[in-house]
Each structure stands twice: as structure tokens, then as C-alpha cells.
Design brief:
The chain has 808 residues and is of the alpha+beta class. It is 25% helix and 27% strand. The protein is built from 18 helices and 39 strands. Strands 4, 5, 6, 13, 14, 15, 16, 17 and 18 form a nine-stranded mixed beta sheet that branches. Helix 11 crosses helix 16. Bound molecules: flavin-adenine dinucleotide. The site of flavin-adenine dinucleotide has 41 residues, from helix 1, strand 13, strand 18 and helix 8.
Length: 808
């Protein structure tokens, strides 16, 4: 064999599933290779629990697909993966935990996950051996279960083989050929090379080493993960659901013969071979038992299941597994075209394998997956993850706090501060409460703006935890006077060359071929019409465009553009994020403030909305762009970094007589929501089209672009759902996203984002409603922690509907 359509490296559960799903899509000529036997990496020592409820909707849907697949594999392939659909219990041993479960049960309803909250007594009927003391209740999911990891991998491999896949074991990959940024082939230790256009790195904890063969950094970090197996315990029955008690950091499942498997996530995790990856001969191997590290888990398990104390331990399993810096999988195409990655399953690879295989196969065969996989997309990791130390610090924190309740807007601490805007010192002096995004330190709000008068606006419950009166103060000051925002972390990409205009015209749904100095708001769509990027494009000269996108989306958007760039096109793409600062100045007083530090004519006639010009503000030459994401008159100012502090000082001083305040990202979020502006990644995703999202105005007529056919089709057929703003009856009941929306007792939608509109004095949420309900005034309700809060469909947008303020 000297050529294959795709080569999947790694014969663990993930690689086998990708081969299975690729062949299902008709890619029969697939080669699956492993340096030893199938399952000889992390897969063979897995505990095999399959839990579907995860941190994101997409991941949960992937897990749900996995269960469907595991149910039918035995019949389909003749190999039995020993799927046991025993259900699962997630205990709540604190009041906060039961709140968390209620919240999860709420969003489970939005996509048909049969999760129910049960009493402690009902949980005891299902699992009679736990001590109910302190247990407040549980979440019960009858379709969870466990599977034999080896059986599952064999069944998937068999399915792939039956459809034509070739499997090589003892085939160690030693090189990956890359030609002009594209994968060209794979080299082996003891075999001839094989040519291919598609390579999938399904190397588990070895994925970083494998990635480096192609020059791709895969930020997985191996950690040792342990569980123990006991001899039979009286009363343990085969039909016991799996059980987790996050407050005691432990999980359980029944082991054949009546024993228990007991594992968990310790607070002092053990990274292993994190710098260079596992040794060359590390296959079919376990690490030595680490009883000291297991002790806190054992204590938690003993206190919950007292009979365990008398049980005899058969053995401890201590095996390494790939974790990631944010606890989510690493999937997708890398910067090297045709080089895909599917790794970093954070001890959920068995549960995730079905969905991972499906998503990856679609991505490879069809160009993009059907689901919105942004949270798992390899492009979410910036270049700073090339630091293994940083990747380790981030992954360590995630592992150590795995079972904690993560309240909304909680900020991670590890590896900070990393990227700082030039104004960082100034912002700190003003009492900035920093949050972190993609390594950037960004002010969430300023302590100097705290104002007790707004305490009465504090959202109730969880939403009020990471909140400050300063958010309301900054929001209102921007509406009434002016706010100054440091947005230097915004990703900025330059597209340059004689082919730049034609290239962007092909990718953008809006028309960007406009006179120099025009700013265009546009989406880039996939072939299904889904929104892959949501950006502004400013034409700086005939052949130079600057794209501005969200802090976290630079890599993603750049990747999307690179993927569509023909090598012969005369276009250069450059990330200039670090070279330019960005200060946003907005509010009714913005013109007066800026006008007092510049000679430029800022009048509407000379400087209309959605245009940009080079000006000098204070002593800083900068590009001034008249755009807004907060719905007020104002400008984004882009000086080069060394001038940012000088510009900041000039604006603060000039703003003083006008009541200007420094303002942070939490105010941006509430301001944009009030104005009905959408956020990519939550309100608009690759699964949503601009027509459904109410962004049809940003689609140019009579122009070809990627996704146009799908949009035309949808226009002809008519949309079935539409993104609308809901106004909740209680201004302090704040949606945190993913809450179910009800009409007449039926779930009809899911909240995509929520917040308080401080100027309107209301609680707002965005949700895709069936068109029949997407009518202003329609009464609905939203489930917040099990409580139904009445809501009504609002006019869109609620704030400044005619856009008079931004054009004023
Ligand atoms: C103790 C423990 C308990 C766990 N319990 C659960 C659980 O209950 N539920 C759950 O869902 N998950 C669990 N997991 C996680 C699960 O086991 C993993 O997520 C999953 O097995 C990872 O599969 P993989 O295919 O990505 O990696 P692996 O199984 O590690 O496969 C990667 C393969 O790549 C091959 N490879 C590497 N380099 C090369 C090369 N150069 N050339 C050729 N081949 C190469 C390796 O030989 C290896 O076989 C657990 C993990 C551990 C450690």
C-alpha cells in the first residue's frame, strides 16, 4: 500500500471511531495505524463510564449520539462492546449542588436529554448502599451507562474493516510529510511511506509528539488518573446505575461479579511526562499505584459508601491520559491543511468516541461538521500554548477543580497574567477587576466605579455572585455620558495583496468592495449558510483590508480564511493583534471628548458612521473607526502599541469634564445585549444562518460568496426559527444561557445569552424561537433553576430601534 485517502494515526477508541465513521461516509480507502496494538494507549485501562451530560450543548449531543451508536454496534459488527445501559446518578451533597443539578436539568430539556431530579429516597432505591446523610437529592439519567473500552474499540475497528479500511498494528509513525503547507504523506519506522492528503492525529497522550512531526502544537498534557477495583460487596447488583458524588470528588460503577470500580478527580493531580510526552516504549503499561494521592478520594468514597471499608481491593489502576488546558477536547484541522487532530479527551474519551468519530469524519469529508464544535476546536488555542509550562499550569487547574461548581463568569487563575495591553498599569491603578480571555488580561469592571446605589440591581442567585455595582454604573455612564474601553485584545487580521478584495468578496456575505475608508459588518458562512465568523472589515487601501474580530476568535477566523485561500491567490494574511492597541470611546459625549484632542473633523458629514480615517488624537496618530458594539456614538481608535498609554491619558483627561468613566467588558456585554447585537459563539454559531439570526441586512444582493446557495434555498423555503430578544418579568432574574424557554408548558427554545439591560431596567435574553412565536408581545416563560419566570418577546432592538444614537 503506497497511497491512502486518509491515514488515522492511533488505534485507540478515538482513531477506531474516526475510521468507522469515515468509511460510513464512503471513504473506504482509510488506513488506521498504531505503533503497537489497538487500545494499547490510554484506552485499555479506562473505567468505561459513559455519562452524557457535559459542559456544552454540542458535547452533550455528541455523547447522546455515542449512546445511540453503542446500543447498535454489537448487532451491526458482530463484536459486542458490552454496553450496559444502567443509567447514572449524580448526587448533590450540598445546597449549591442541587441548584446546579436543577440548572443542568433545565438545559437538558432543551435537547431531549431525559434527565430528572430525584429525591434522596428515590436515589437510594436505585443504589441502596450509599449513606444518605447530607445528600440533598440527585440527578438521574436513565440512558447513561458503561461499556467495555476494548470491546468498543474492536467493534468500531471491525465496522471500519468491513467497509474497506486497512488496519496496521506495530506500525510506528516517524515522520509526516508536509508540502507547501499541506499534508503529503506519512513515514514509518519499519515500512515504506504512504502518500495521502489527509492525516488524523488520534494519538491520545502522544498527540503532541505526533503533532510536532508536522510542525503542529497540540496542547495536551498527560496526567495520571486512578481508580480501584474491589472484590464483590454484598448488595451490589448488576443493575446499579453508575454514580458520581462531585462534592466528594468520586465516581463509582458496578464491576462484573458484584464488585465496585471507584475513581475520582483529586485536588493534587499528577502530571506525567508533560514536557516531552510519554517514552517511546510506553504502551500497554500502567504507572505504579499511588495510594497517597488516592487517599482523599478513598476517604470520600468510604464516607459515602461505608461498606467499601470492609471490601477487599483487587487492584489499583493508575494510567496516564491526555488532558487539555481548558478541559475540552482538541478537534479539527490544524494550520497544516489536511492535518487533523482528535485528542485530549480528559478522561471522557470512551463516552466521547462515538460523537468524536462522527464529527471528525464530517469535518474531513465535508469540510466542516454539522454541529457547532467551536469550544473543542483546535483553533481556540493561540500560539502561547506552545509553552508546555503554560499548558501544564492551565490543565492542572482544570483537573484539580474538575468537580467544583463553576459559577458563571468565574475567572481562571493559572498562568496569569500573560498578555497585557500597554495600558495595563493605568487600568490596574483604576482598580480594574481583570478577567482573562485567550491569555489576555481584560478589565471586567473598575473598582473605582463601584456605587452602592446600584446594589438593588444585583441579579438574584448565581448570577449575582461574580457581579459588581460598577457594571451597572459603567453601563449607565456610557449611555448617558461616555465610557472609555481598552479593547486592545481584539483580534486584528490584515488581508493584503492584489487578490485581497476578490478573496474577501468570495468569503464575506456582505459587499466589502467599497471605497477606501469604508467599514463593513459581515459574516463569513459555511456551505450550509452557518455563521463561521462575525467581523468588521475596513478597507484601508485598494489592496489592504483590516478585519477585527473577538479576542478569542483570531486564530479561528484566520484558520477559516487560510483554508479558503488558494495557494496561487495573491493574498497575504497577517495577524497584527499584538502590534495595535484599541481604545473604544462611546457615549453621547464621545464627539466632544475626542474633538477636544484632535483637529480632525468629527462631524457626521465629514466622518459618517461605518467609516474610518487616520487621525491624530492627543499626540497619537491612529486609525479612528466609527463603529460600535455598544450602540452609542463613538469610535474605536487603533494606535500602535507604544502610543496607547499616551492616547489613554489624553482621553481620560479630555473626558473628565464630560463625566467619562473607564469601563469594562461586562458593561460591553450588557450594552450590546440591550441593543440586540449578537455574539459569535453563543447567539450566532456555525449552526445558525444570518436569516435566522436577524442579520439578513448584512447579506449583499447579487454577489457570489461561500454559503450563498444555502441562503437562497433557505430564503425560498422560509426560515423556521428566528433569534429574538425576550424581556423577563423580573429585572433581577438573569439568564445565564442554555435555560429552556416555554410556551404553553412545552419547551420551544433555549436561551443563547442573557443579561440585564440597565438602561431599560429589564432582564433580557436571546433565543431562537419558532417563527410562529417570534412575534413581539408573545407571552413565554423561562426556567431559571427550576422556577418559571414569565417573559415576553420584545421588539428588536429594544434600545434605540432607529439607530439614531449611533448615527447622531
Ligand atoms: C484510569 C483511567 C480511567 C478512565 N475512565 C474513563 C471513563 O470512565 N470514561 C471515559 O469516557 N473515559 C475514561 N478514560 C479516558 C479514556 O480512556 C481515554 O480518553 C481514551 O481511551 C483516549 O483514547 P484515544 O484514542 O484518544 O487515545 P489512546 O487510547 O491513548 O490511543 C492513542 C494511540 O496512538 C498510538 N500512537 C501514538 N504515537 C504513535 C505513533 N508515532 N505511531 C503510531 N501510533 C501511535 C498509541 O500507541 C495509542 O494506541 C479513562 C482514562 C484513564 C487513564
Amino acid at each position: 500500500m503506497d497511497e491512502a485517502r486518509a491515514i488515522v494515526i492511533g488505534g485507540g477508541v478515538a482513531g477506531a471511531s474516526i475510521a468507522y465513521h469515515l468509511t460510513e461516509l464512503g471513504w473506504n480507502d482509510v488506513l488506521l495505524v498504531d505503533r503497537r496494538e489497538l487500545t494499547s494507549g490510554s484506552t485499555f485501562h479506562s473505567a468505561g463510564l459513559v455519562g452524557q451530560l457535559r459542559s456544552s450543548v454540542t458535547l452533550t449531543r455528541m455523547m447522546m449520539y455515542g449512546v445511540e451508536l453503542y446500543r447498535r454496534l454489537a448487532e451491526e459488527t458482530g463484536v459486542d462492546p458490552a454496553w450496559h445501559e444502567v443509567g447514572s446518578l449524580r448526587l448533590a451533597s450540598s445546597k449549591e449542588r442541587i441548584e446546579e443539578l436543577r440548572r443542568l436539568a433545565g438545559w437538558g430539556q432543551t435537547f431531549g436529554l431525559p434527565l430528572e431530579i430525584v429525591s434522596t429516597d428515590r436515589a437510594l432505591e436505585l443504589w441502596p448502599l450509599f449513606d444518605p446523610e447530607g445528600v440533598e437529592g440527585a440527578a438521574y439519567l436513565p440512558t447513561d451507562g458503561y461499556v467495555d473500552p476494548n470491546g468498543l474499540t474492536s467493534a468500531l475497528a471491525e465496522g471500519a474493516k468491513r467497509r474497506g479500511a486497512t488496519i496496521w498494528t506495530n506500525a510506528r509513525v516517524t515522520g509526516i510529510d508536509v508540502d507547501r503547507g499541506r499534508v503529503a504523506g506519512v513515514r514509518f519506522e519499519d515500512r515504506d511511506p504512504v502518500r495521502t492528503d489527509v492525516v488524523v492525529n488520534a494519538g491520545g497522550m502522544y498527540a503532541n509528539q505526533l503533532g510536532r512531526l508536522a510542525g503542529v502544537e497540540v496542547p495536551v498534557v498527560p496526567f495520571a488518573h486512578q481508580y480501584l477495583l474491589t472484590k464483590p460487596i454484598e448488595g451490589v447488583r448488576p443493575e446499579f446505575p453508575t454514580m458520581r458524588d462531585p462534592d466528594r470528588l468520586v465516581y463509582f460503577r458496578q464491576e462484573a461479579g458484584g464488585g465496585l470500580v471507584v475513581g475520582g478527580y483529586e485536588r493534587n493531580p499528577a502530571p506525567w511526562s508533560w514536557q516531552d510526552g510519554p517514552p517511546d516504549d510506553f504502551n500497554n503499561t500502567l504507572l505504579p499505584d499511588d495510594w497517597d494521592r488516592f487517599e482523599p478520594l478513598a476517604n470520600g468514597a468510604f464516607s459515602l459508601v461505608p461498606d467499601l471499608q470492609k471490601a477487599e481491593v483487587v487492584r489499583m489502576i493508575n494510567g496516564p491520559e491526555a488532558f487539555t488546558p481548558d478541559g475540552e477536547f482538541v478537534l479539527g484541522e490544524s494550520d497544516v491543511r489536511g492535518f487533523f487532530v482528535a485528542a485530549g479527551f480528559c478522561a471522557h474519551g470512551i463516552a466521547g468516541a462515538g460523537g468524536v468519530g462522527k464529527v471528525m469524519a464530517e469535518w474531513i469529508a465535508e469540510g466542516e461538521p454539522e454541529l457547532d464544535v467551536w469550544k473543542m476546536d483546535i483553533r481556540r488555542f493561540g500560539r502561547h500554548y506552545a509553552s508546555r509550562r503554560y499548558a501544564l499550569a492551565r490543565a492542572y487547574e482544570v483537573y484539580a477543580t474538575y468537580y467544583d461548581i463553576h459559577y458563571p463568569n468565574e475567572e481562571r487563575q493559572a498562568g496569569r497574567p500573560l498578555k497585557m495591553a500597554p495600558t495595563y498599569g493605568r487600568l490596574s491603578d483604576l482598580g480594574a477587576e481583570f478577567g482573562e480571555k485567550s491569555g489576555w488580561e481584560r478589565p471586567n469592571w473598575f473598582g473605582s466605579n463601584e456605587d452602592e446605589r446600584y446594589e438593588e440591581l444585583r441579579p438574584r442567585g448565581w448570577a449575582g455572585r461574580h457581579w459588581s455595582t460598577a457594571i451597572a454604573a459603567e453601563h449607565l455612564a456610557t449611555r448617558e455620558r461616555a465610557g472609555l474601553f481598552d479593547e486592545s485584545s481584539f483580534a486584528k487580521i490584515e488581508v493584503e495583496g492584489t487578490g485581497a478584495c476578490a478573496f474577501l468578496q468570495r468569503l464575506c456575505a456582505n459587499d466589502v468592495d467599497r471605497v477606501v475608508g469604508t467599514i463593513v459588518y459581515t459574516q463569513m458562512l459555511n456551505r450550509r449558510g452557518g455563521i463561521e465568523a462575525d467581523v468588521t472589515v475596513t478597507r484601508l487601501s485598494e489592496d489592504l483590508f483590516r478585519i477585527v474580530t473577538g479576542t478569542a476568535f483570531g486564530n479561528h477566523d484566520l484558520g477559516w480564511m487560510r483554508k479558503h485561500l488558494d495557494p496561487d491567490e495573491r493574498v497575504r494574511l497577517r495577524d497584527v493583534t499584538g502590534a495595535l492597541a484599541c481604545l473604544g470611546l462611546w457615549g453621547p459625549k464621545a464627539r466632544e471628548v475626542l474633538g477636544s484632542v484632535t483637529d480632525a473633523d468629527l462631524s457626521n458629514e465629514a466622518f459618517p458612521y461605518m467609516t474610518a480615517k487616520e487621525i491624530a488624537a492627543g499626540d497619537a496618530p491612529c486609525l479612528a473607526a466609527r463603529v460600535t458594539y455598544v450602540g452609542e456614538l463613538g469610535w474605536e481608535l487603533y494606535p500602535s502599541v507604544e502610543l496607547a498609554v499616551s492616547l489613554w491619558d489624553a482621553l481620560v483627561e479630555a473626558g473628565h469634564p464630560h463625566g467619562l468613566v473607564p469601563a469594562g467588558y461586562r458593561a460591553i456585554d450588557s450594552l450590546r445585549l440591550e441593543k440586540g447585537y449578537r455574539a459569535w459563539g453563543s447567539d450566532i454559531t456555525p449552526e445558525d444562518t444570518p436569516l435566522e439570526a436577524g442579520l439578513g441586512f448584512a447579506i449583499a444582493a447579487g454577489k457570489e460568496f461561500v454559503g450563498r446557495d444555502a441562503i437562497e434555498r433557505l430564503r425560498a423555503e422560509g426560515i423556521r426559527r428566528r433569534l429574538r430578544t425576550l424581556v423577563l418579568s423580573d429585572p433581577r432574574a438573569m439568564c445565564l444561557s442554555n435555560e429552556p424557554v416555554f410556551s404553553d408548558g412545552e419547551v420551544v427554545a433555549r436561551v443563547t445569552s442573557g443579561g440585564i439591560g440597565y438602561a431599560l431596567g429589564t432582564s433580557l435574553a436571546l433565543a431562537y424561537l419558532p417563527v410562529a412565536l417570534a412575534v413581539s408581545g408573545t407571552p413565554l416563560s423561562v426556567d431559571l433553576f427550576g422556577e418559571r419566570v414569565p417573559a415576553v418577546v420584545g421588539d428588536d432592538p429594544l434600545y434605540d430601534p432607529k439607530g439614531e444614537r449611533i448615527r447622531g
